[in-house]
Amino acid sequence: MSKNINNTQKPLLRDPSVVMDLKRMGAMHQSRISFTRTLIRKMANENWTITNTKWDLCKDGYGTAIYELKTPNNTYNVVIFSNHIKDEERNDRVIAEKWDTTFTLIKGDVSNKLLEVLKSNVPLQEAGRNTNRAFVLARANKSVRVFDHVINSLASGEQPNIEEVAKVGYILRTTAVYGSGKFGINDYVALESNPDFSQSFSAEMCAVYILRQFSLDWANYIAKNKGGDKAVTLDKDIQRFLGIGNATGLGMAPYLIRHPKVVDNWLYQREQALGKVSLEEITQEKAQELVGYLNRAITHLEDVVTINENQKKLNIQAAIELPSIIDSTKKLIGSTFKELIESSTNASYEAQEVLISSIIELYPELVDCHQNHMRVDEQPLELAGVKIKALKEKIKSHYSWALNYDFSTEKSTYWFWYVSEDKGEPRLGVRNVDKGHELELPLDIARRVTNLNAALENVEDDEAVTKYLLENPQYSAIVRRVWTMGACQMGEIQANVLDEDFLPMDLLRAKLAMFGATKFDPRSDRWVQVTFFQSAPLANEIHNGEWLFPQIPKSKDDRLNIEEGKISVSRTELRTMCSNAFNGLKRDSGEADIISKMVVDTEMVGLDGVKHYANALKFLKDSNKTALNISSEDSHIIVDLNNDTILGHIQILIAYALEFIPNNDTVTLEIKNCHNRWLVFPQALRIAKKGLSARFSWDNSSNDKSISYLIGANEEFPEVCISSSNGFNKRTLFIEISTKDIKTKCDSSELISSKQLKKAFNDASENGLVINLEDWNALKEVAKAIYVESSESSRNDAGGVVES
Predict the structure, then answer these.
(1) Residue 723's beta-bridge partner residues?
(2) How confident is the model at residue 125 (pLDDT cuts 50, 70, 90)?
(3) Residues sharing a CB contact under 8 Å with residue 369, sequence separation 6 or more, in sequence order
(4) Rounded to whole angstroms, how far apart are CA atoms 372 and 369?
(5) pLDDT in tens, 269-282
(6) Which InterPro entries does the entry mention (predicted)?
């Protein structure tokens, strides 16, 4: 952990004029606290399970499927109806009346009677009525070209062409995902007390995630029926790469204007997370991790296929700029991330936002808590006791951006928002050209603030706002909004949505990025196609690792390939699991955070840290000897661990030995009767950083080999020597710490060089870790010991913290 982490230090927040600039918001990317990411982490941390319980589909894939979702608190079911429609009936717009699939998320079991009701209503979508046990009502269409290519390839015994698949990145594309009480389904208010879906849009995201699993199962099923024994199953790498598409139009844009406190809070929580991280020192380790994400972002941007010429240019420009940011990262080691962020302000917003998402990824221990504070009370503030002077000051301090527009010009009032007869869809018209400007929606916040400001110019400062509004009721809505949003941390989106230069796409992208979308493909300036859950874990391998900037699996040797019996995890996920496993041992000695870092650091350089740790767990459960026998003679220290693990003691033992250094050139530690010596690898790095040389050596108990780590002062990685063992000291670890160089006696043919370790570390930073599933499950089983059975009391205690 970086030396600067201090949870009591106030985060450094950027000015709202920077954060709430709509052009910047329109370049946002998915981050750790986007809703898709937080949902999957919650599912992993709480061991949610997804099971296909009904598969009543004909050989062509039409019929009903049900997936049961079990959480520690409740049971839910996602009911999916697959329908045959003609190609000409397939339309992604809200005006469509038929869809390839329709689905709903239901709380509790689905009886035969309820299923019949759902069959009669869910496929009708807006035209149907639904039970209030439904949390989500949604529909999706095939991406026909990719769907047919995948099915035909699998049926003929081949995997689909990844380049063809990557052009779209999904089989199904949702065209509307409804929540919040529409068409008879459950209200958001009820979800506030639901321990599973109390966070913003989590129910909707969960339904979409399960639909993604259905789309993969569906493709395999249809291909098998079509190809028979010749058919093959879709490659796991390709399955992970395929997400769920989404087509979003103008209907989403007004939400951000109508719910300003929601947007303020989303951006404030993200900004707090970034502010905390910006205080941190850029260490060598964090710089390497960040460079890995930035390189992935370059590949991701280059891989994104879009028909939108402007988005193409933005992606290309960012991909060109990111190597410069990578260079800055390396040059600024020892500085803070704040300095790195500030050094990138000349880059495009697209590149800057890539950097911000990547930096946030580095510190889950600082960032992830903000996912629990995304909901906000939208109640406006009371106006009782407020004076006109205070209102004027609030306009000046929080709405000066709005006063910069000249609403007497056609340019500043070019657009108007209205509601179409077509299913009540919000639309954008050109003033004095399109019909309906007299029915304009009140989304013109900047113009209303400007008009209010002019109206208040000659009003006495000490007049009560309530009295003024009794005489001027036409201003009540904007006055209350100004007063309420002026008390928020970030405030309004700083844009005039009537201006000719305004692009609805910026609003759409900002919201979709918070949801967790990737691969932005604007189809015009008014609707966009994106992908959700691309590269997310599959339903049978849910984990809380990262999957930022999805990568195309290039080949069977590519970094996303996962062999049978293995699992891909991030270092953050692995540290959490190792920590939980150690805590599950209920030992008196040892610090879980330090031990988990030892395991991860050893794994990162290819020295099988997880395997050694998993093997250790077999006897660590029964070993808990805390008393050590220590003696010393001059600079030679002898310790007997009584057949205990080295993990719980090595940190303190090294510290104890270092106290001898000021009076001795060399100190030796002889640690007898200890286990798990491979995992002392990070301690070699620790000593080298102090400007000292070190050698760790022992005879391996599992074979006739002698092992040593040798590292020089200030070196980044040691050399690992493996030679024949004399077998004399199979349970002893010898550590030499010196102010002078320590010469190696290892033959070069038996040497793992520091360059090899560094390459392994860089590969792991870039591509993630792949470990044996058996070892992972061993850790997971021990970690279960720390879980407390869910109860009504514990759920009531999880109400969160109200921030002042």
Answers:
(1) 706
(2) confident
(3) none
(4) 6
(5) 999 999 999 999 99
(6) DUF3726
Dihedral angle sign, alpha carbons of residues 505, 511, 514, 516: negative
Q: How many residues does the chain have?
A: 804
> Which runs of E-coded beta strand occur in 646-714?
666-675, 693-699, 705-711
Contacts 24+ apart (CB under 8 A), 696-702: 696/733, 696/734, 696/735, 697/733, 697/734, 698/729, 698/732, 698/733, 698/734, 699/725, 699/726, 699/727, 699/728, 699/729, 699/730, 699/732, 700/725, 700/730, 701/730, 701/731
14 C-beta neighbours (distance < 10 Å), count: 18
Yes or no: say if 245 and 530 are a contact pair by the CB < 8 Å rule: yes
> Residue 8 CB: number of other CB atoms within 10 A?
4
Residue 548 DSSP code: -
Question: How many other CB atoms are found less than 10 A from the CB of residue 120?
Answer: 11
Residue 292 burial by Cβ neighbours in a 10 Å radius (0-12, 13-18, 19+): buried
Pairing type for strands 629-633 and 719-724 reads unpaired
> How far is 684 from 735, CA to CA, in rounded Å?
9
Do the beta carbons of residue 705 and residue 720 sit within 8 Å? no
d(CA 562, CA 555): 11
Q: Rounded to an integer, what distance in angstroms lies between the CA atom of residue 656 and that of residue 284?
A: 26
Q: Which residues of 390-410 are buried (b: 16+ CB within 10 A; e: fewer)?
A: ebbebbeebbebbeebebeee
Query: Could you tell me which of 398, 93, 379, 84 has the C-alpha nearest to residue 261?
Result: 379
> What pTM was estimated for this model as a whole?
0.71
Close Cβ partners of 587 (under 8 Å, ≥ 6 residues apart): 620, 624, 648
Structure tokens at 101: 């699939």
CA dihedral (59, 61, 63, 64) positive or negative: positive
Dig out the tokens for 379 from the structure: 């109640």
| Beta strand 719-724 pairing with 101-107 | unpaired
Q: Which part of the chain has CATH 3.30.1370?
A: 565-804
Strand partners, 141: 173
Taking the mean position of all CA atoms in its chain, how far away is CA 511?
15
What's the CA gap between 58 and 61, in Å, rounded?
Answer: 5
Instruction: Retrieve residue 360's tokens.
Output: 């946030």
DSSP state of 536: P
Look-up of token digits 């050694």: 612
Least trusted range by pLDDT, from 9-13, 313-317, 447-451: 9-13
Average pLDDT over residues 652-663: 92
What is the Cβ-side half-sphere exposure of residue 388, based on CA atoms within 13 angstroms? 18
Residue identified by tokens 């303190």 is 652
How many Å apart are CA 711 and CA 687, to the nearest integer?
9
How far, in whole angstroms, is CA 122 from its chain's centroid?
A: 31
Question: Average pLDDT, stretch 526-537?
Answer: 91
For the purposes of burial, counting CB atoms within 10 Å of the CB of 689, is it exposed (0-12), middle (13-18) or buried (19 or more)?
middle
In angstroms, the CA 384 to CA 691 distance is 65
Rounded to 5 degrees, what angle do the CA atoms 164, 165, 171 make? 135
Q: Tell me the average pLDDT of the chain.
A: 88
Q: Determine the topology of domain 565-804 in CATH.
A: Ribosomal Protein S8; Chain: A, domain 1 (3.30.1370)
Phi-psi region of 33 (alpha: psi -120 to 50; beta: other; left: phi over 0): alpha
Please give the DSSP secondary-structure letter assigned to residue 132.
Answer: T
Residue with structure tokens 């009537």? Answer: 498
Which residue bears the tokens 């089989």? 171
Q: How many CA atoms lie within 13 A of 604 on its CB side?
A: 22
Q: Where are the beta strands (DSSP E) in 562-692?
A: 566-569, 629-633, 636-645, 666-675
Q: In what order do the strands lie in the sheet with 629-633?
A: 629-633, 636-645, 666-675, 733-738, 693-699, 705-711, 719-724, 751-752
Quote the CA–CA distance of 732 and 636 in Å, as a whole number.
Answer: 14
Strands 705-711 and 693-699, by their bridges, are antiparallel
